[in-house]
């Protein structure tokens, strides 16, 4: 199958057709309108076989995750997801593989009313690049740089499950059969916290999505905001499945360093704390306060009120480790 036949058959037909897309797939550029008094948030993520996913992973899961990671970035800014571009490099055209990939991609796109408006298809080692764009009311977006000393530190959801699933697939950890499906779903089908991001833009002072591990991503937020932070380890939100398979100490380590959670890490001032908690609770979003910011410019951790040293950092491309 040739390139343009591939595009027409699998990517041109999709469930979402937004009114703000004036020209989509099939021309040199797409044309969209953002409306007055809005900013456009733009993010790009690349997933490479053998680095971000196993080459033999289910194509539906790859399609889902390739979009989910970009929507998670938009969620961290409080943006409403709107349009995506897709650049996909394929070793060959396996029609069944592409069909399943599109099923995973478009299922999530339809859920969040996101339209694919263009991209590129090439031949080569398997990789997927998604550029996602979302709308924000002018001057309403969250960033990593708005936190202040005294702000409270929160996360959505639970941490560490995806990291344990990865270790299971790499045969570095044993997981009882009844927990395997739940943990693998956290790794292969992450749920971007778009609704939480929409709410948090009214309350939070700063936010970042957790893709490379809590400690690593918190370090980015603290550096941007010029603050320090203390994490209360006994408050980390850990699932029953995680604790049952590895115990508390390893569970905390995976939550701090594991990555692939795609939850939101965010900060809230004392004045906004009650309003934020009420709004998230009313929306059915699970959240946990895990610490507080300070002026130390360092990351520290406490366990049962005692200071403990944690040798932890997140994933980083091109690191020597």
UniProtKB/TrEMBL annotation:
Taxonomy, superkingdom: Bacteria
E.C. designation(s): 2.7.4.16
Binding annotation for ATP: 119-120, 144, 211
Domain PurM-like N-terminal: 26-135
Catalytic activity: thiamine phosphate + ATP = thiamine diphosphate + ADP
Residues the entry annotates as binding Mg(2+) 3: 28, 73, 209
Binding, substrate: 52, 260, 315
Annotated binding of Mg(2+) 2, by residue: 45, 73
Function statement: Catalyzes the ATP-dependent phosphorylation of thiamine-monophosphate (TMP) to form thiamine-pyrophosphate (TPP), the active form of vitamin B1.
Family from the record: Belongs to the thiamine-monophosphate kinase family.
Misc. remarks from the entry: Reaction mechanism of ThiL seems to utilize a direct, inline transfer of the gamma-phosphate of ATP to TMP rather than a phosphorylated enzyme intermediate.
Protein name as annotated: Thiamine-monophosphate kinase
Source organism of this protein record: Thalassotalea euphylliae
Gene: thiL
